[in-house]
Specification:
With 205 residues, the protein is an alpha+beta fold. Helix content is 28%, strand content 30%. It folds into 2 domains: 3-65; 81-204, Sandwich (Immunoglobulin-like).
């Protein structure tokens, strides 16, 4: 074999070796791409599962689809004072049945048919009584009987329309009640007639 043939043979072997290297490299590249695709698909599968698991929390903020939201609520209680009289028209009659011969002062039978009820959340508090009748022929007395709260002021003579008289004191913050006793007094010397009162009860300090 001459020198030219030897060189050609050597060149052919080099080309064959280069082709084999290229083929091996291409195979490695294909294998790497396949492995990369496999892991990418696995990663995408895991990510999809995590998304499905976390979706309720993302959508609703709490496990199980519960949604929570906060809202401030303030309770404000104002000064409350309520008072009522249970009972209708009150008649105090002075006639032969209650008059004592020879005595100028004539007293009616007391009337306890009315009841006072109240409620207040403030202190100090009391209940006052007042008449609207300025000119009076006869005397009207009122008294709180057995108040459930506070202290009865005793028998009150409603002699003028200019004042509010204490009726029940120290009722404090309470819900209470008391019977009302009305009594009329007339003098024989005053003669016959009628006094018409409008009585007002007030919760005040």
């Amino acid at each position: 074999m001459n020198t030219l043939q030897k060189n050609e043979s050597k060149t052919g072997l080099n080309q064959l070796y280069l082709i084999m290297r290229i083929t091996i490299f291409q195979g490695e590249m294909m294998r790497t791409k396949m492995i990369s695709r496999f892991y990418k698909s696995r990663i995408l599968s895991v990510a999809s599962m995590l998304f499905l698991i976390l979706l309720p929390r993302i959508a609703f903020g709490q496990p199980g689809g519960l949604q929570r939201i906060s809202q401030p609520v303030n309770i404000t209680v104002s000064d409350v004072s309520i008072i009522r009289v249970i009972g209708g028209h009150v008649d105090l009659n002075i006639d032969d049945a209650v008059v004592i011969a020879g005595v100028d002062q004539m007293i009616s039978i007391p009337n306890e048919a009315s009841k006072l009820i109240w409620g207040t959340n403030s202190t100090p508090r009391k209940i006052t009584i007042r008449t609207n009748l300025i000119t009076q022929l006869y005397t009207l007395k009122a008294e709180a009987i057995s108040p459930s709260q506070g202290t009865a002021a005793g028998e009150v003579i409603l002699s003028t329309a200019e004042f509010d008289y204490d009726f029940i004191t120290d009722i404090g913050k309470s819900v209470g009640s008391a019977r009302i006793r009305y009594t009329a007094i007339a003098l024989a010397s005053k003669g016959m007639g009628t006094d018409s009162h409008t009585i007002t009860y007030t919760i005040t300090q």
